[in-house]
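Whiteboard transcription, Tuesday session. T.W. wrote the structure tokens on the left side:
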């Protein structure tokens, strides 16, 4: 009679052991990025390294650029650099081969608002001053310029640009416009030199974040005035699809590719909403300050990337995976500090079931969530 009991105990222990081993969150740096320091940023087949203002790709180097940018798929890197009291647009392949070297005569070398936005096909946009943007083709030839000035007599903060990887949908926005006793904002979609559409304007709330979905089909705006916060969803033509209001501070927004779900996160909490009805699908709190979060409906999983952020450095980084349907939480700390080269580029993509990749860091990370 002892043998069945022993067999049962052994079988139960085996099942319990297998169950415990199965529930884990595994985080690994992509192999080619595993040795990257905080000043080395991944390129497709190469690395961009920064050392006290000197940037190198292969055998090529740029000293103290006014601005720099890596394309979304890490295939190209571009710089606005000063040479002989002139500003140049230079773009490199990941090997260090220079493919664009154009002098920008209309730039002021002393303007501190210069900025570069680089797309995957090699086309680019420069912010020439507080509110003017110039569009270039992949060969560095000027296409057209657009002014995004609000014409406010009280002043405005420098304009920003949000776009998808290929610049299919380009949004120019004024994050802060001074209206005297209030701070407002506005945003517009740019189709061409004489084809633009202002789709958002608010005279009492600032724009905290603008995101364009990977396909370029949807636009999200996060606004706030210090007491009230709003999330807006638009299609690529600026037609409003929905909006949500919050009475607590919100930090960021991500949207599913089909725009069915929107993830809204604050410093310590993430919630997922049905983008059509506004009904809450799930929510979670975080022990680490939230830096980015996204919901993947295929797996019914929320991923939360957190840590203590100072500038572009992230100390004590950690990942959490929350399975909404199973009500299970997996959490894993990352052993060393990381860095972000562009917060607008930080994102998580799904590779396959319960497998994901985080990009926008000095090391791209692969995440495997086994519930």
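and on the right, the sequence the group agreed on:
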């Amino acid at each position: 009679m002892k043998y069945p009991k022993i067999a049962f105990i052994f079988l139960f222990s085996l099942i319990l052991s297998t169950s415990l081993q199965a529930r884990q969150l595994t985080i690994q740096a992509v192999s080619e990025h595993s040795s990257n320091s905080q000043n080395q940023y991944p390129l497709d087949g190469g690395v961009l390294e920064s050392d006290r203002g000197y940037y190198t790709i292969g055998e090529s180097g740029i000293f103290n650029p006014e601005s720099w940018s890596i394309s979304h798929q890490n295939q190209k890197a571009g710089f606005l650099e000063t040479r002989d009291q002139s500003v140049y647009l230079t773009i490199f392949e990941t090997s260090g081969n220079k493919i664009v070297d154009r002098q920008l005569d209309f730039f002021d070398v002393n303007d501190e608002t210069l900025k570069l936005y680089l797309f995957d096909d090699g086309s680019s946009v420069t912010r020439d001053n507080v509110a003017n943007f110039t569009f270039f083709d992949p060969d560095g030839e000027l296409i057209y310029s657009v002014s995004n000035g609000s014409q406010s007599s009280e002043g405005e903060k420098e304009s920003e640009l949000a776009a998808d990887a290929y610049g299919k949908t380009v949004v120019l926005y004024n994050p802060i416009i001074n209206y005297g006793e209030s701070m407002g904002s506005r945003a517009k979609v740019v189709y061409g030199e004489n084809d633009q559409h202002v789709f958002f304007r608010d005279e009492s709330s600032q724009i905290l974040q603008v995101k364009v979905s990977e396909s370029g089909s949807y636009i999200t705006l996060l606004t706030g005035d210090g007491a009230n916060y709003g999330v807006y969803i638009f299609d690529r033509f600026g037609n409003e699809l929905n909006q949500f209001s919050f009475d607590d501070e919100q930090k960021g927004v991500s949207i599913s590719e089909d725009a069915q779900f929107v993830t809204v996160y604050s410093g310590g909490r993430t919630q997922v909403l049905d983008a059509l009805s506004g009904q809450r699908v799930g929510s979670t709190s975080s022990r680490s300050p939230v830096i980015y979060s996204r919901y993947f409906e295929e797996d019914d999983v929320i991923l939360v990337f957190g840590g203590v952020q100072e500038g572009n450095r992230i100390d004590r980084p950690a990942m959490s995976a929350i399975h909404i349907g199973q009500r299970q939480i997996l959490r894993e700390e990352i052993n060393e500090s990381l860095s972000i080269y562009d917060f607008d580029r930080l994102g998580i993509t799904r590779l396959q079931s319960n497998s994901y990749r985080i990009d926008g860091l000095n090391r791209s990370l692969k995440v495997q969530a086994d519930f």
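Someone added at the bottom: The first strand starts at residue 24 and ends at 29.
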